[in-house]
Amino acid sequence: IIIDPKMAFGTGNHETTYLMISEMLKLDLEGKELLDMGCGTAVLAILARLKGAKRVAAIDIDEWAYNNALENIRLNHTEDIQIALGGAEKIKEFGQFDIVFANINRNILLNDICQYTNSMKPGSILFMSGFYVEDIPAIEAECQKNGLKLDSYNERNNWVAVKVLKG
Length: 167
Known about the structure:
Helix content: 25-40%
Order of helices and strands: HEHEHEEHEHEE
Strand order of the largest sheet: 3-2-1-4-5-7-6
């Protein structure tokens, strides 16, 4: 994967991106529909497409990140990734997903879990990162309010990535 990060987040060096990439590498994405929410450089979206995801959508609220994601998608010849500039309100434009990756921050995640849930097919998976181990109870409580169940988490230098399931 070729990434020219410019002003966007997502080179793979930060703990949260590293954790999310690690989670994605464990998955069989062949034929899956995947959302990369808060895509930054689009590194996760690009990896998903290269791993065989059938449809990939990427959304970021930051215009610098959005433009950088478009460039990185072209650099990696994954132009069929759908990309949008905006927040969680844009998710509904893309339909439903088998897998959602959201690497943002605690407060935005807590606010947007309901919108992620609405975009998830039954039996789908949500991976979230951008927060610390001590934030897991708050994230888990909001997930439970939205019919999601915490399955597992991985940690690196006090940062975590959680895996959450929709029944």
